[in-house]
Amino acid sequence: METMAAEGKCVAHHEGRVVFATGCAPGDTADIELTRIKSSFLEGRAVRITALSPDRSQPFCQHFGLCGGCSWQHINYATQLKYKQQQVIDNLERIGGLDLPPVTPIIGSELQQHYRNRLDFTFTASRWMTREELDAGGTMGQPGLGFHIPKMYDRVFDVHTCHLMPDEIDVLRNRVRDVAIKNDIPFFDLRRQIGYLRTLTIRRTTAGNLMIILQVAYDEPKWLEIILNEIAEHHPSATSINYIINGKRNDTFHDLNIVTWKGESWITEYMSRPTGEGSLQFRIGPKSFYQTNSQQAAVLYHAAWKLAGIKSTDLVYDLYTGTGTIANYVAADSKKVIGLEYVAAAVEDARINSSLNGNSNTEFYAGDMKDLLNDEFLSVHGRPDVIITDPPRAGMHGDVVKMLAKAGAERIVYISCNPATQARDLKLLCENYRIEAVQPVDMFPQTMHVENIVLLTKK
Ligand SMILES: C[S@@+](CC[C@H](N)C(=O)[O-])C[C@H]1O[C@@H](n2cnc3c(N)ncnc32)[C@H](O)[C@@H]1O
Questions:
Q1: Which end of the chain, N or C, is surrounded by fewer C-beta atoms within 10 Å?
Q2: Residues of the chain with pLDDT under 70
Q3: Euclidean distance between the first and final Cα of the chain, in Å?
Q4: Per residue in 20-73, pLDDT tens?
Q5: Alpha-carbon distance 24 to 315, whole Å?
Q6: Which residues on adjacent β-strands are paired with residue 293?
Q7: Beta bridge partners of 17
């Protein structure tokens, strides 16, 4: 296997055609069983590794291979970083057709396990059984609480240990599953859409406070009490315990009422600046986005702040602001910061975050970016000197990219968790802007995902 492709598959060549393979590592020699044959490429999976790559590492998780989470844990961290850096360059050059300055080396994450602050687990009335479990006499139809198997919306395997959050989270999740089974509380059947327990979301601050969000299908107070009491009794660090009644066909809850059963309806994260000059605090509600690797979020913001080069006379727009984290990070250096965000609850948090951090020069507005950011908004609020934009994986809507070009800021800092959509957007922006710097950052060790910051200056 010669290298790694953008989606995390290994790449080799066979008789002039490129081969994309799963189940191996770059540097391996492997026998590949082909699953797709096209005139220009072949796809397959490794059925036998005949020589192991020197870049391999021993997988640490018992669920490796089944879980979609840490699919790169068989590759050592230095090699992961090398391929992430390459992924950024490939996307920007191939999809964007962009001329790049030298790309600064990727900033690795100090924590390579236990780095996440949020996990979403799904209850299932019939958990996925592995071949080994079935061979050992296991039967189908057992309840479970865990993660979806990649690309299978109705297949969930039971998680015993997950190395993405600290051990306490394993204890809590396994306790919830066990108490539900002991009390005959029905787990949800994803195919038939019947049952009671749907999802369990756990968020954690660096200081160890937990937010719990339990989703159930209908109102049954005695079952809710059993589960939530069990959590409250054994996990005093759970300072925000919430539940949601969700009778919909899907598990998204941005449009549902959240009931705080015990404690506060938020958790507070503290972030130290890597320079050591002061710290910030952010209130995070159940519906609000927060960067999932808290420690590395400070590194990401610091890198973006450095690239932004904000002056005390600058009007800054922070697009896709979430709970106003970046807006507050840069507020002290700016004349004024305007944050825009879709989720109204996150905007409320953003305003509170400004007062918690003593920033009186921020303003936040809620709405869909493509509707909110228009000519009228620019004439009412003023043209920005600096724009920081941090859209979701899908990147920016075409109309937003056009408005960015029109707004005419001197500098744009574009943060992205998907270099492919970032490349697409940059291609358009580069009609008016030039790329000054590219800084990849690893927010997601053991996965193929990479974050990237690009600084653009007006031509
Ligand atoms: C990658 S997050 C970045 C949040 C924030 N900058 C941070 O660092 O925490 C993207 C944010 O964009 C928001 N968002 C997604 N689609 C949007 C849209 N169409 N209009 C406005 N905001 C949107 C999400 O709710 C989320 O808060």
A1: C
A2: 6
A3: 42
A4: 998 899 999 999 999 999 988 999 999 999 999 999 999 999 999 899 999 999
A5: 49
A6: 116
A7: 14
324 CA distance to ligand 1 centroid (A)? 10
**Residue 3 pairs with which residues in a beta bridge?**
11
Q: 451-458 and 411-416 as β-strands: parallel, antiparallel, unpaired?
A: antiparallel
Closest CA to 247 of 257, 239, 238: 257
Q: What is the dihedral of CA 395, 399, 401, 407, to 10 degrees?
A: -140
Which token pair is 121?
A: 């687990």
Selecting among 10, 24, 417, 430, the annotated active-site residue is: 417
| CB neighbours of residue 191 within 10 Å | 12
Which protein residue's CA is at the shortest distance from atom 27 of ligand 1?
322
398-407 helix and 419-429 helix, angle to the nearest 10 degrees? 50
Q: Do residues 187 and 143 lie in contact, with contact meaning Cβ atoms separated by under 8 Å?
A: yes
What token pair was written down for 252? Answer: 């998204």
DSSP string, 206-225: TT--EEEEEEESS--HHHHH
The type of residue at 289 is: F
Mutation pick for ligand 1 pocket among 342, 362, 393 (CB with most ligand atoms within 8 Å): 342
Question: Catalytic residue at 417?
Answer: yes
Measured between alpha carbons, how far is 189 from 185 in angstroms, rounded to an integer? 12
